TrEMBL record:
It is an enzyme of class 2 (transferase). One of its GO terms (biological process) is phospholipid biosynthetic process. This is Diacylglycerol kinase. Residues 1-129 form the DAGKc domain. The gene is dagK_2. InterPro entries: ATP-NAD_kinase_N, Diacylglycerol/lipid_kinase, Diacylglycerol_kinase_cat_dom, Lipid_Phosphate_FormReg, NAD/diacylglycerol_kinase_sf, YegS/DAGK_C. One of its GO terms (cellular component) is plasma membrane. GO terms for molecular function: ATP binding; ATP-dependent diacylglycerol kinase activity; metal ion binding. Its EC number is 2.7.1.107. Keywords: ATP-binding, Kinase, Lipid biosynthesis, Lipid metabolism, Magnesium, Metal-binding, Nucleotide-binding, Phospholipid biosynthesis, Phospholipid metabolism, Transferase. Transmembrane segments: none annotated. Its cofactor is Mg(2+). Belongs to the diacylglycerol/lipid kinase family. Pfam families: DAGK_cat, YegS_C.
Length: 300
């Protein structure tokens, strides 16, 4: 029998996971996996690190929003714990899970039990903190913190879009210098996104050619533009089109540096951040994750 540690955020997704806990444990137990629940109640990770280092567990399962998955992944990477991580999405956007092709509880359980894993890229900010899906700054990135929890529960990512659109009239540009490999770009911008997959901020297929195993980050820069042009960009991504637009710059790089004289709201995997100015390096195939059979076949 295998052993797994199940680390879950009890309040993510409207307290969804606690109500499904017996079902989750039972599903694994029937397949010969004994799962130990670990309830995240604060940022103190001493006991969690000790458990993951104990050698008892064959793999770890993380359930919550992108911030929860980020928290567990950083513990693994900071402590050089070589262990696969399974993802059970229970947040609002679940960007990293969707980048891996995981969309639901039952789907995630099946994927973990199939046992197929890949090594995925991670971003490292200022040599101190890893991110899995998105590092973002500028307008709209803080809407997740200012959106009513009941609205998020009822409308999911759509709640963020509605909140963001309501703030269009109040947007302000900021100066930004981006050094990305051999590229240097300076100007006035409304938003930047550094992403590790096709989805970010709940927008599916934001970049059709993004790949979380190629060792490159995708950088999206939205230039200062009129509200009409900005609304056009929103319409494209809401229509599940690629973000390509004359007011959008898209780059690929292994390393980049971002500096600005302006105060900028920042998020790392959906959580508030103050990691700025930022030097970012992408680490190729550093984190082992459970993935669907199809994605495994494409990338093995």
């Amino acid at each position: 029998m295998k052993n797994a540690l199940f680390v879950y955020n009890p309040i993510s997704g409207g307290h969804k996971v606690p109500s499904e806990l017996d079902y989750i444990l039972g599903t694994f137990q029937k397949k010969g996996v004994l799962v130990q629940p670990y309830r995240l109640i604060d940022a103190n990770n001493e006991y969690l690190v000790s458990a993951l280092k104990s050698g008892i567990y064959d793999f770890v399962i993380a359930s919550g929003g992108d911030g929860t998955i980020n928290f567990v992944a950083n513990i693994l990477l900071d402590n050089d714990i070589k262990m696969p991580i399974g993802v059970i999405p229970s947040g609002t956007c679940n960007d990293f899970a969707k980048c891996l092709g995981i969309n639901s509880l039952n789907e995630s359980l099946s994927i973990i039990l199939q046992g197929k894993t890949l090594l995925c890229d991670v971003g490292l900010i200022n040599n101190s903190h890893y991110f899995l899906s998105t590092f973002a700054g500028g307008n709209f990135v803080d809407v997740s913190f200012n959106t009513n929890s009941e609205l998020k529960k009822n409308f999911g990512p759509l709640a963020y879009y509605l909140k963001g659109l309501s703030e269009v009239a109040n947007i302000k540009s900021f100066d930004l210098k981006v050094t990305a490999d051999e590229h240097i770009i300076e100007g006035k911008f409304l938003l930047f996104l550094i992403v590790n997959g096709k989805q970010a901020a709940g927008f599916p297929n934001l970049l059709n050619d993004a790949d979380f195993t190629d060792g490159y980050m995708d950088i999206i820069l939205v230039k200062k533009c009129s509200n009409i042009n900005l609304a056009s960009i929103f319409f494209k991504v809401l229509s599940k089109e690629s973000v390509n637009d004359k007011n959008v710059i898209i780059l690929k790089a292994k390393k980049c540096e971002l500096v600005s004289k302006s105060p900028i709201a920042l998020t790392v995997d959906g959580e508030k951040s103050e990691l700025f100015p930022a030097e970012i390096e992408f680490k190729n195939k550093l984190l082992e994750v459970f993935v669907p059979q199809g994605i495994y076949e494409l990338n093995k």
